[in-house]
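Ticket #4471: structure output looks truncated?

Reporter: J.K.
Steps to reproduce: submitted the chain below (388 residues) through the standard prediction queue, then opened the result file.
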Amino acid sequence: MTVTLSSSLPASVEAAPADSVLRPLPPRAVRWLLRAAFAVPYVVLALIAAQTTPTTLLGLTGNQATLDRATTALDGGVVQAIGQLYPLLSGVLLRFMPFGAQGAAVLGGVVAGVLLQLLAQDMRRRGLRMREVVAFTIALGANPLYAFVALNDLQAFLGIALFALAVVDMVRFFAWGDTQAGFRAGLALMLSTLVDPMGFVYLAIAALAAPVLDLARHEQRGIRRANVLVLVFPSVAVALSTAVLDTMVLHDPFAALRGTIDVSGQRLAGLQHLFATADGLLLVAMVVAGATLALLVGRPGAVALVVALFGGIIGGYAIGLVPVAAAGNVFVTMLSVAIAILPPVQGRVTSTLVVVLAVLQVPLAWAAAFQREVVVEWMHALVAVVLG
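Returned output as attached by the reporter:
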């Protein structure tokens, strides 16, 4: 994983706009054909999953849990929904989604394909070799954890996707002085707070990552603080607006947040069990892989971001921001962000090592999937439908 793209411009020269150094985009029709091609396998899986027999464990996954919470809150009236449904946007989306959780799974499959294409496209535009682009695209897309999160927890997947795309633009904003990219990053982070309870965790991680990013206009005093303000302002404004609304209606500025946080013994026991099993070792292996990638591409400062992402997601689970029946959030988030900001690799040997590391993520993800009971149960249900 990396968090910076070095600029070849001398410090005395104004940073060129990002569009002048990126490779040109392929034709619009080609881009949408690729997105459709990437999305088809996930949409097919979603249609198969719609025919599976519901189980108690699968009923605790993100889509069903969000739908149940949104139905209870919204059917009780708008005032009740304001205090009980956070984040409001994803709850409303699930509540009025055609075919409920099954419709959310189809939409998640479409988003999964679009995200893969956008990340692959951005890697290619930044100058990565085609083999590196292919290796990382397969590493993310060709494993059950990516599909499981996309099809079973739409709000978490939307949050992860928005965070990854925000980081792409954040690096372009800091390292290349692309102000438009900075505004896009701020809006993407804001949207992540509106669709995913983990959104503010991602916002904090993005702000903490600022000190390890290269800066295009480093000679300007206070530029780093100004850049961070551009990133966080939309999210902070939305949070303050929500707090004011909760105060006016429910006389509690933290009403929505209180209904989301859930520090239970079940969750803490689950974390303790997690790190006492092979699944915990596989999660640690993801951290080691991210740190190794950061060192391979010459960005040791990115190790701090790897650790922050891991700690933030685990902490989010502990306080109830991640559903009980969740799996793959750590893998999908860390690898998506790694892909989003991987710089062009210098040297054939280093490139080979980076490709090998990317390819190794596939068996690592499959091994992790078989350690999670909910993923195994989901895959068995899919196989049962296929085999009739």
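Triage note (M.O.): checked the attachment and the full token line is present. Confidence is low (pLDDT under 50) at residues 1-20.
Status: closed, working as intended.
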